[in-house]
Amino acid sequence: MFASLAVVHHVLPLFNASPRIQTSSSPYVRWDALHLLAITNAGYRCENHWAFLPGVSFLTNLLRSLPTEVGSYFLFLPPISHLYAVQHHWIRATLCFILASFFRSNGVLLAGYLVWGLVVQPFLDGKQLSFFKIAYSITLSACVTAPLIYHNYSAYCLFCNIHNKPQWCYRIPPSIHTHVQANYWDVGFLRYWTPSQIRNFVIAAPPLVLLITFSVQHIKISFLGFRIRLNSVKETNKEENPFAMPSITPYLIHWSVLWGPISLGIPPAYLIPKHITTSLQHTVRS
Known about the structure:
Layout: H1 2-11, H2 31-42, H3 55-64, H4 70-86, H5 90-101, H6 111-124, H7 131-159, H8 176-185, H9 198-230, H10 249-263, H11 274-285
């Protein structure tokens, strides 16, 4: 069909009086699209533009205003998820986590917040865990990891069903995402630990020291509070220090244990991600 369209384009004369556009894509360019594009970019500048209503231009401007960076979507979705999780709206939180996982592979780490809220936090509070809650948290966490698993599974079915299989097909797990990141972008654990990165470590040292110090102190206080609750001893001055609140712990773990080591070597990574700071502010205020 497309070949026939190209042949007809070169044989028949043009419908409108516009100059001939000598490109390979010219058979697929509509004359009205040129006018609509001009209206979208500069408004109704010419008299003949007023033959077109503003609906298409409005939709074009609306779509063009959407961010094209992956990070914009990935940093937008987790704060909403955390707010839902704090309110125990687990289904809504899971849906936002799933959408975040569609944009970046480390979105699967967000499933830890579901496990923490449904299993870990009730256990630390001395509540009895039910099989339903454990199974529920596992199911929701599996949904968050589904986009990455499906992405790798699709690649496995495409590349690993041939005789000359790529090397990554024999790895466990056979992840094409990890393979491509390592081969084409030199991404991997401790690969940033090179002499050329020493200056970056020096630049990142002050906030890193503060974050590690705060993390150690918070973990000490949280562990002491857990021991007090475990021994059924009355806890005093529980709300004296807002930064020692147990609700901060999952966000701290996400940065110090997961986000920090994965991004180690990149100076901006030493800053707590924006979606975590937003959740911390909401937690402290509540």
